[in-house]
Amino acid sequence: MRFPEASLIVDHFDEPELDFRHDQRSHHPKDGLFLYGPHDGPRKLREVRIGVVGTSDGIGHFRSWSRRLLSGIPVPPPGPTEKKDRLHLADFAGLEETFGITFDPDRLRSLTVEFDAIERATRVQNMHEAVDAVARIYTERVHKFRRNEEGSIDVWMFVVPEIVYERCRPESRRTGLTLVAGKTPKKQRARSPQSFLFMDERFDPRIEDVFDDIPDFRRHIKATLLSIAPSQILRESTLEPTAFLNSAGYPKRTTQDPATVAWNIATGLYYKTQDRPPWRLSNVREGVCYIGMVYKNLPNNRDNHVCCAAQMFLSEGDGVVFRGANGPWKTGKYEYHLNADAAKELLETVIEAYRDLHSEPPKELFIHGQASFNDEEWQAFCQAAPKGTNVVGVRIRPTGGDAKLFRAGDYPVIRGTALSLDEKNAYLWTSGYVPQLDTYIGPETPNPLMVTILRSKHHKPEMRTVLADIMGLTKINYNSCNFNDGLPVTVRFAKMVGDILVMGSAREGGPQPFKYYI
């Protein structure tokens, strides 16, 4: 891109503040939770009901780790090449002290699965069939529990051995394994033609339901649990890395330090079991709603139809996921557009949900995505919104090094730096040197986001307003307890949500809270 040098304006946005208990504020989630506690958290200690599914070893690892989680986990001492003061790390004081919730590790609802059964299932020749079989070993234990036991579970924790991670992802190669024949041909990747289905009367067409899903264990679990409860998947080696050593006596995996693992898992545990998120953005503009739109190709669809989904995030920071209509929305190699009816229906559903929560429609509705909008769908969006609601379309795209900004000193550009190109386009560095932490957490010179204001129903908002909103949305990832993310939540989790919605077991049902997908 060529632009006149005189038009460049470098700006900086202050770090967004977060609200915690007692109307206290902090820039860092860890500081706020440690000092004040969760925003709108329980007034007295609340016990959460956790169900754990895993091998006997996996459940044992979870129990021993849970005891450490309740008692507190310190940050390990710095290594020879590390700074003495590592402000991005923090001791974990304990689940009760930090979040005001607790559970008894010895009274967990633990459901045991056999390692040998998992190992055999991972060896089935057809990848779709193998992953489906492994996922069913876990999910059928949950279904059996729900049929036979009383009492509800707030969150299900799935503790998996390393072979599940190594063999049950789309990129898994299973090189060197002795594979066994299953019910479907080894190289089959989609449903057979109808003529083949009726060649043999003994053929059960339900066998080929496995091809309605991507062969990914995590997506299987999340899709199945959408109608049950929030879920969390943990590798055994994350909970107890010292139990998995190589020949030299070192852990096979390089994991985050135990305190950081505790912060991240505990934050997700709180978010998935409580009514409100652990923190919220300060100084939010009233009446503003943010939507992240995503398109995903439907697997095994002969018409090449696409699923469209919208994630709605409110000023509180929490979100709801809506499924739009499936259809021929792919109009080019990288272009997706809804027709007028689908666009109108999707936005009306989102606005209705907002109205249910706030008793009135939003004043401003920002649609974040990585695609543009054509005239037909944009006019439908505008018609679906009430007269007083300003709809704004914003494209947010990561860049791959086409723009770099450097500053004097040992560290790169400061997070929150923006380079305005014109009234509609700007670069925004959501990652970079953070003065509060006195460090930059990244492997290379940070790349900015390219932000473009595409369209607006009424007045076009100021670019500073759009960029400030994006900065805030990088701080409400409740699946971890990081200082910030590089992408706003509307874009960061779009792919993850879409991956789950296109799974066969997730295609029915209405809007679900965002906590079910992460």
TrEMBL record:
Domain of life the protein comes from: Bacteria
GO molecular function: nucleic acid binding
InterPro entries noted in UniProt: RNaseH-like_sf, RNaseH_sf
Protein name: Piwi domain-containing protein
Source species: Pseudooceanicola atlanticus
Organism classification: Bacteria, Pseudomonadati, Pseudomonadota, Alphaproteobacteria, Rhodobacterales
